[in-house]
Every structure is written in structure tokens, then in C-alpha cells.
Design a protein that fits this description.
The complex is a heterodimer. Chain A is an alpha/beta fold. Chain A is built from eight helices and ten strands. Chain B is of the alpha+beta class. Classes of the chains: A alpha/beta, B alpha+beta.
Chain lengths: 240, 423
């Protein structure tokens, strides 16, 4: 069974009398434990699509099933709960909570969203900090670490609740290449370890090849689905 | 919940200057209210104490209709010997009554053989009077005699100053009795009484037997019985008890309640608390109203400052709200995060305000600040009850929560997608 089933998704933004069709009749399926990239130029609809998959926005028409749930039909509170249980987010600007330390940022969704017990929290956070190479940075605040480190913390935060799906909107846009590939390597490693599906949007052609499947969007339409060969992935992976 | 408090506390520290300014404003408001309540309360209590302890007593019993014509000091509205005896019996039955003093009240002419003037007099049994209004003795000038024997008179300070009278001088009191005959008697001035605010504050005093003599009473009559209670806080209860025992209607109750002990005196007497006898009660009520207004101002200060700072906090953290909303924080939790922040401001303001307020009250008392009120000088002795202290703090905390609610609710209702787009 597919983790994500998108059926004829359209999204129209209305500003006064002006209507902008951000997504046009898009359909696709994504299997569990995939590493997916949505590519396309700015304004092609990548972020809109990720927002709909992530229950942050609703389609104007069509249906979006995530893990068997029609996310478009969820009300505000239920969609919050669904996100908290099933979806992790990685943002372009990292979006760490500035008043919390690295450790506390990763702890936040465990404590405030999933209400996980203290012992379990400590165990998971220690493992994640080690996985993302931040084991000795737990007590630092976000303004005391670099951009690459912040995004690694964001990845750890997204993974903390052990979601089935992680959505990353331009996760490497604010990073240099070395940091970008480091973050992508961590994401791939985590995908293997936790069987989590990673979907990220990007318009950076150099990191596009890191994905297993690439969906190309243009003017709100899904133009192409490309399965990337293993050898190319390996090549891309060594870039870092 | 601990995490929510931690986040709230750190967010307050994040905008340190703003937090300090807002907390200072609330602290200042709390200090101002505490100081006002303490000083005005002490002034009120001082005045009530002076009025009840040096003139009126806590309660008074009169013949029905006497109080409404008290300015004329009507001699015919007196309680006869039998009535006095019955009232005394009732008063002795009530253990909460500490002392009582029967008074003959009349107006007369005071003469020092060269000048004359009007004078209002109370004829009293000195021992009873001093027990009922213990501060009367403290009103006497230093060179006054502290006992009042038959043939002696205490005269008010104003009269003594205007007629240049001093203790030991001779004087004559001339008065008309209820039958219309005039009589006079010679007295020695035993003391000069300092004036105090309120009715009876400028009256003279003679011995009860002299009052009977001057007014040529065939048998002792009394116009007023002043009563002192052991516990002033029990005033209203004892008022009701006395009314019941004397067979008088309770306050606001027109139906008289019969009592075996009070036959004969039924409906012929009146019992009044000091509040019904002294116009100072209006000033006391005004002080209470002013306290309410000051508290309303504090509420406004807390409400506006916390609402303002919380609205700013929400506006500045829209993207953060979007982030925590996106990762699954429920709206109720977002609401509580911001409400706790406002609550922390209120709690900090009330704690600091209470501590500083108590220190300021202590300093005011240490400095013994004098307050001139006409001819009288009061030393401010401010005090605040634990009830007032807790009450004001609770008001601040509740208002903090109310003021935080609107911004917190706004934050909780934000769509994560819109909040994340906010620049």
C-alpha cells in the first residue's frame, strides 16, 4: 500500500478577482521508505504540494491520502494531531526554537506533541544527537551553532517522533555545498535506519540526483517522474 | 507544564528590557495600591478609633426620636430611672459589652464672671465614662486633673482659649431644664479637653450628679447610654443582640421582636452604631470608594501593559508559532504557552510589588510622617492586612491571565502555513 496517494490534486489561490492555479490536476503515489525529490523552478508549485501532503494546506479539488488518511478532510485539531504522529518537517530556515537548547529543540515534539516519557526521550535524543554528529553540542542554543549544524538539529527534531514521513522544503537552500551534502547523507542514513520516507523540494540541480525518484513540476503541472539509477546516487553521495 | 513554564520564562528573558519595563509598571501599580490602602486604611481606623474611643463609644442607646433631634439636645426625650435600670440589666447580660456610660446631655451658658458663651455638656459618671471612651483622658491637657469630681468641669480647648480659661479657674454653668426653669451652679475648671473631629468633639464634661442638680431632676434621667464592646469587629452582631434583648426591630426590620426582659421599653428606645451617629462614616465610605478606584486603575495598568506586551510577543514570534503548529503542537498548548508568559509577568509584578510595598510601608512608619488635619495632627501608621495583600496579588494575577487571553487565543488560532510564510 502506498504511503501517499495523490489523486487529481488542484490548488487555486484567489486574490480578489485574480485566480492563480498553483497545482493542476496532479496525481502520484509514493511508497513507504522512499527518498523523493520534487524539483522545479520557483513558482512551480513544489512548496504548495508539500504543504498539502503535510496537512498544512488543503487542495481546492482532488484527494490526498497520507498513510491511509484523507488529510484534506481533517479539521484543524485533527490535522495537528495527525502531523504530530505521522509527519516531520525540515524547513529551509531551520526554524529551531531560539530559547531552547539543541537538546531541548529535539525534545520539544517528544514532550509537547507526543508526551513521551522522560527515559525514552533521553534515549532517543542521545541516539539522534549521535546520529547527526551533534552529541557534544546538546547544551548549545541555536544562535551558538552554524547553519549546517542547525539543519542537522532540525533533521533530528523531525526524526524524534519517529514519523512515517518527513517533508523538507528546500532543506539545503541556506547551506554551503559541504553542509548540504552532509545533511542529505544524514537524511539518507536515517531513511535506511528508520524506514522513513523523505520528500524534499529543491531547485538545486546538484543535489537533485541524491533522490531515488525525482518528480519534476512546471507551472503547477507534474511533468516528469524519474527513477534515479543506483550508480548515479552513489556518485552523488560521494560528493560530500 | 514545567516545559511550558520554562519556555515562557526564557521568552520573557529573551526580551529582557521589555519584560523589566512591564514588570516594573505592574510592580509600581501594586506598590501604589498597597501604600494607598495601608495609609488610607490606617487614617480611617485612626479616625474611627478616635471617634469611638474618645467620644461616641461603639454603640449608643437613646430614647426613640432623640437622635433625629440631637442637635437641639432635647431634654424631654430622656430615659427614666426604670428604663435605665432595665437597659443596664440587659447590658450586663451581654458578655461582649466591656463598659457602658449613661450621660445627661444638655446645652447651657458658660460664664467666667466677665464673659459668657454657649456650651454643650455631658454629665457622666467619670469611672464609667473613662472605661467606655478611654481616649477621653488622653485629650486632657497636661495641667488637667485626671479625675472629675462633683463640682468640677472639663471644658473644651476652643472655649478655654477664647476665654483664657485655665485649670483651677472658677466658672458658672447656667441651664434651662425641661420644665423651663433656669438654674445655675458654680464649678472649678478641672481640665481642658483637646478638640477632636466629629459630634461631641467640642463638648464639656461634668459629674452626673451635677447634671441632675443643674437640671433640677427629681430623679436621675439619662439621654444617652454609650456602650463599649470588647471586640469592635463584633459590632453588628452585638447591635443585633442588643436590639433583640431590648425588644427593638433589627436593622431594616420594622417588625419589633418581643422579649420578656424588655417589657416596657419595647419600641421606646433606639440603638445606633457609631456609623449612624458620626458623619465621618461618609468620609470612611469615600475612602473605601477611592480604594476601589485605585484598584480599578491597577487593573487597567496590568491589563493594558500585559496585553500590549503579549500582543508584541505574538507578533514577533509568528514564524515560531507557525513552526510549533506545523510540528503538531495543539492549539490549546499554544494558548497555554502564551497565557503562562502573561501569568509569569503578573506573578513577578505582584511578588515584587508586594515586597517593595511592604518595605515602603515600613519606611513610612519608621519616618513617622505627620499629617496635619485642621487643628489635629496624625502620625501615619500604615498597615496592610494579609487579606488585602493576598487580594491585590490575586487581582493582578487574574487580570494578567485575562489580559493574556486575547493575544494567546490569536496565537492558538493562527494557521501554521500562514504563520510560516510571515516575514
Amino acid at each position: 500500500m502506498a504511503l501517499i496517494e495523490a489523486k487529481k490534486i488542484s490548488k487555486i489561490y484567489e486574490t480578489g478577482e485574480v485566480k492563480v492555479e498553483a497545482l493542476k490536476n496532479i496525481s502520484f503515489d509514493i511508497e513507504p521508505a522512499s527518498f523523493i525529490s520534487f524539483v522545479g523552478p520557483s513558482g512551480s508549485g513544489k512548496t504548495t504540494l508539500l504543504n498539502i501532503i503535510g496537512c498544512l494546506d488543503k487542495p481546492s479539488s482532488g484527494s490526498m491520502f497520507v498513510n491511509g488518511t484523507d488529510v484534506a478532510a481533517l479539521d484543524r485539531v485533527r490535522s495537528s494531531m495527525f502531523r504530530g504522529e505521522n509527519i516531520g518537517f525540515i524547513f529551509q530556515d531551520f526554524n529551531l526554537i531560539p530559547v531552547l537548547t539543541v537538546y531541548e529543540n529535539i525534545e520539544y515534539p517528544l514532550l509537547m506533541v507526543q508526551n513521551v516519557g522522560e527515559e525514552e526521550r533521553r534515549k532517543r535524543i542521545s541516539a539522534l544527537l549521535k546520529d547527526v554528529g551533534m552529541a557534544d553540542q546538546g547544551n548549545k542554543f541555536p544562535d551558538q551553532i552554524s547553519g549546517g549544524q542547525k539543519q542537522r538539529v532540525a533533521v533530528a527534531r523531525a526524526l524524534a517522533v519517529q514519523p512515517k514521513l518527513i517533508l523538507a522544503d528546500e532543506p539545503t537552500a541556506n547551506l554551503d555545498h559541504a553542509s548540504a551534502y552532509m545533511v542529505l547523507d544524514i537524511m539518507k542514513k536515517m531513511k535506511k535506519e528508520f524506514h522513513t520516507t523523505f520528500i524534499f523540494s529543491t531547485h538545486d540541480p546538484k543535489i537533485v540526483g541524491e533522490a531515488e525518484i525525482i518528480y519534476t513540476l512546471e507551472d503547477g503541472e507534474l511533468k516528469k517522474r524519474t527513477a534515479v539509477k543506483k550508480s548515479k546516487k552513489a556518485k552523488g553521495g560521494k560528493h560530500a | 507544564m514545567r516545559k511550558i513554564f520554562k519556555i515562557a520564562f526564557r521568552n520573557l528573558l529573551r526580551y529582557r528590557r521589555r519584560t523589566v519595563l512591564t514588570s516594573s509598571l505592574i510592580t509600581f501599580g501594586v506598590v501604589a495600591v498597597l501604600l494607598f490602602v495601608a495609609v488610607s486604611g490606617s487614617f480611617k481606623n485612626l479616625m474611627i478609633g478616635q471617634i469611638t474611643d474618645s467620644m461616641i463609644g461603639h454603640l449608643q442607646i437613646h430614647k426613640k426620636g432623640y437622635v433625629s433631634s440631637i442637635d437641639n439636645l432635647p431634654l424631654d426625650l430622656s430615659i427614666n430611672k426604670e428604663g435605665i435600670k432595665k437597659i443596664e440589666t440587659v447590658l450586663k447580660q451581654v458578655p461582649e459589652v466591656e463598659a457602658f456610660s449613661p450621660r445627661i446631655k444638655f446645652g447651657g451658658i458658660y460664664s467666667n464672671f466677665t464673659e459668657t458663651t454657649n456650651i454643650r455638656l455631658n454629665a457622666v459618671y467619670p469611672d464609667n465614662e473613662f472605661k467606655t471612651v478611654p481616649q477621653l483622658l488622653s485629650r486632657l491637657s497636661d495641667n488637667s486633673k485626671k479625675t472629675l469630681d462633683p463640682g468640677e468641669i472639663y471644658i473644651p480647648e476652643l472655649l478655654a482659649n477664647s476665654m483664657n480659661v485655665k485649670p483651677g479657674d472658677m466658672a458658672v454653668i447656667i441651664a434651662t431644664n425641661k420644665d423651663g426653669s433656669v438654674n445655675g451652679k458654680q464649678f472649678i475648671v478641672a481640665g481642658i479637653l483637646g478638640s477632636v473631629t466629629g459630634p461631641g468633639g467640642r463638648d464639656g464634661y461634668i459629674h452626673y450628679d451635677d447634671g441632675v442638680d443643674v437640671l433640677r431632676m427629681e430623679q436621675a434621667e439619662t439621654h444617652e447610654i454609650a456602650v463599649r464592646l470588647k471586640n469592635f469587629e463584633e459590632l453588628l452582631n452585638i447591635d443585633a443582640v442588643l436590639r433583640n434583648k431590648l425588644g427593638l426591630p433589627s436593622t431594616g426590620d420594622k417588625a419589633a421582636k418581643g422579649d420578656k426582659d424588655s417589657k416596657g421599653s419595647k419600641e421606646s428606645l433606639e440603638v445606633h452604631t457609631w456609623e449612624a451617629l458620626s458623619p465621618f462614616v461618609n468620609i470612611a465610605n469615600m475612602i473605601d470608594i477611592m480604594s476601589i478606584f485605585i484598584k480599578v486603575m491597577l487593573i487597567a495598568i496590568v491589563m493594558i501593559s500585559i496585553m500590549n506586551v503579549m500582543m508584541m510577543a505574538v507578533y514577533e514570534r509568528i514564524r515560531e508559532i507557525g513552526t510549533i503548529g506545523a510540528i503538531g503542537t495543539l492549539p490549546g498548548k499554544i494558548l497555554s504557552m502564551f497565557m503562562v508568559e502573561g501569568l509569569c509577568l503578573g506573578v513577578a509584578g505582584s511578588i515584587f510589588g508586594s515586597i517593595i510595598g511592604l518595605i515602603v510601608i515600613f519606611i513610612v512608619n519608621t519616618l513617622e510622617i505627620q499629617f496635619n488635619f485642621g487643628r489635629e495632627v496624625f502620625i501615619i501608621n500604615a498597615s496592610i492586612s494579609a487579606g488585602d495583600l493576598i487580594g491585590i496579588s490575586v487581582i493582578v494575577i487574574i487580570i494578567s491571565l485575562i489580559a493574556s487571553f486575547q493575544p494567546a487565543f490569536k496565537a492558538s488560532r493562527m494557521e501554521p502555513i500562514k504563520a510560516l510564510r510571515h516575514v
